[in-house]
Write a structure and sequence with these properties.
The chain starts with a helix and ends with a strand. The longest helix has 17 residues, at about 1-20. The chain has about 230 residues and is mostly beta strands. Strands 1-2-3-4 form a 4-stranded antiparallel beta sheet, with no helix packed on it. A hairpin with a 7-residue loop joins strand 11 and strand 12. The chain is built from 2 helices and 16 strands. The radius of gyration is 27 Å and the shape is elongated.
């Protein structure tokens, strides 16, 4: 009888512990997952007047802003979809407005056959206005020459004016913060083979002075009158 009583007690205890716990309501927060590796980081661009403001561009994985308070890089292109994957996640160049640290420009186009876009932000990349580059303009963030410099630049003495040095189509200019573009016909190179023109650099201290680097066949051009005339340095 004692053995039978013990067996009943054991079964009773097992039954008590076998019951699943009552579910409790939980709130989940989803955030981007950090995935290491997956391409190059061709350049890190520092804002010239605001300390600690940095942007990084990858060749195939979008652009990022450094957040010092969180000590991490914030992805700026998680909004992209499958249709625009090869464009928005391919930042060819980043340009910053020296007079306004909130303004950010990103020229995007991962491969030469894809439509290229100019992404413009007034809040450091939290949201963007998106403008297409002229049809046929060649960008290739995943191409050769990706680390030679920044092809896109803001004129520090006229912040609404941008210059863009392309891979095959010469030098282009926008006078309305990237909404529309026209070729700089005074620049001596109107077409070249890839990787073409490698960078644009405005002198922040001398108005009208701008440099453009040519990677093929090679050379450095300078203008002292905001692009009206050019000379090979």
């Amino acid at each position: 009888m004692r053995v039978a009583g013990l067996a009943v007690l054991c079964l009773t205890q097992v039954g008590a512990y076998a019951q699943p716990p009552n579910p409790t309501a939980q709130t989940y927060a989803f955030n981007p997952v950090t995935i290491m590796a997956g391409g190059y980081i061709p350049n890190i661009v520092a804002h010239p007047t605001e300390k600690g403001l940095f942007y990084a561009r990858t060749d195939i994985g979008g652009a990022y802003r450094w957040d010092a308070s969180l000590a991490r890089w914030i992805p700026l292109m998680d909004f992209t979809d499958a249709t625009h994957y090869t464009n928005y996640l391919g930042p060819e160049s980043i340009a910053l407005d020296p007079s306004d640290p909130n303004k950010l420009y990103i020229a995007t186009g991962m491969y030469t056959g894809s439509q290229a876009y100019l992404l413009y932000s007034e809040n450091r990349g939290q949201s963007f206005q998106i403008y297409p580059f002229p049809a046929g303009t060649t960008l290739a963030s995943n191409g050769n020459g990706r680390a030679e410099g920044e092809r896109l630049a803001v004129n520090p003495f006229n912040p609404s004016e941008l210059f863009f040095a392309t891979r095959r189509d010469g030098l282009w200019k926008s006078e309305d913060r990237g909404q529309t573009w026209s070729r700089v016909t005074t620049f001596p190179i109107t077409s070249t083979s890839d990787p073409g023109l490698g960078f644009v650099l405005f002198d922040r201290f001398v108005s009208g002075r701008v440099f453009v680097g040519d990677l093929v066949p090679g050379g450095l051009y300078q203008s002292l009158d905001s692009g009206a005339t050019w000379a090979l340095v």
